[in-house]
Amino acid sequence: MDKTWVVVADSSHARIFQLGGAQQAPEELFDLANPLGRADNRQLASDAHGQNFGPEGRGHTAPRTEEPVQHAVHQFARALGRRLDTAAAQQRFQRLALVAAPRFLGLLRDSLAKPTRQLITAELAKNMATAPAPELDACLREIAHR
């Protein structure tokens, strides 16, 4: 029997479920937290932009290429992607469904290796990571029937 994993995630929280048969309840395999995903950039930035001095001796600031919270969210998506890539390589699932906040869905998809992306059978761009249990159960049942 093919195993389906469903990732329910946003920038600060991810849960991975395994779907069994039609009569079985989804089994939660992992619950991962990224508290920095909800932080404020001012809380994470340790100091001001770096200062550079040009040949004329005038100083200017070097802007950040990525805000601290955005960097933490990208790291979380990459870590989640590596976990899924490893599980796919070990054949722990044959189908993958992604349910994530719209922005995070794109980051997560981009963090997956090509062989793992090819296992995706369903996507839902909706933030269900903090949804109440009945709403989450309904979403997982809908994914299971796709």
Automatic annotation (TrEMBL):
One Pfam family in the UniProt entry: Host_attach
Superkingdom to which the source organism belongs: Bacteria
Full protein name: Host attachment protein
UniProt organism field: Pseudoduganella guangdongensis
